[in-house]
């Protein structure tokens, strides 16, 4: 038999939790890394008819996924000069620079703070 219930009443199909067709994928994953990755992750624990097609369709219609795709990003432009603030500490920026040679304490980054 392909389907079965566990002791808590959860329906399984081939050892994975069965999800009915009307369940939304967005309830399972608020963030995903694309269709293939999402499908591989989901099919480890879940199964429902047409899983692959549902995942592909869901990711294809996901507004966030469409906006962050590499082909929809504008290329970087030239650096622009930053206006000099009138007062000290008016604007503070910080960033990490990593990939530096290791120190004796096994550190390879610095925290840069500019006011």
Automatic annotation (TrEMBL):
Lineage top rank: taxon? Eukaryota
Which Pfam families does the entry mention?
Integrase_H2C2
Q: Where is the Integrase zinc-binding domain?
A: 29-70
**What InterPro entries does this protein's entry cite?**
Integrase_H2C2
The record's listing under PANTHER family reads:
RNA-DIRECTED DNA POLYMERASE, YALI0A06105P
Q: What is this protein called?
A: Integrase
């Amino acid at each position: 038999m392909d389907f079965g219930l566990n002791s808590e009443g959860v329906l399984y199909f081939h050892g994975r939790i069965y999800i009915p067709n009307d369940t939304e994928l967005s309830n399972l994953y608020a963030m995903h890394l694309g269709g293939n990755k999402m499908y591989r992750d989901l099919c480890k624990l879940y199964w429902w008819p047409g899983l692959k097609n549902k995942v592909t369709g869901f990711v294809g219609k996901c507004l966030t996924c469409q906006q962050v795709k590499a082909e929809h990003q504008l290329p970087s432009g030239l650096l622009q000069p930053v206006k000099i603030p009138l007062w000290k500490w008016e604007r503070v920026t910080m960033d990490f620079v990593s990939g530096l040679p290791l120190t004796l304490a096994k550190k390879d980054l610095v925290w840069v703070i500019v006011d």
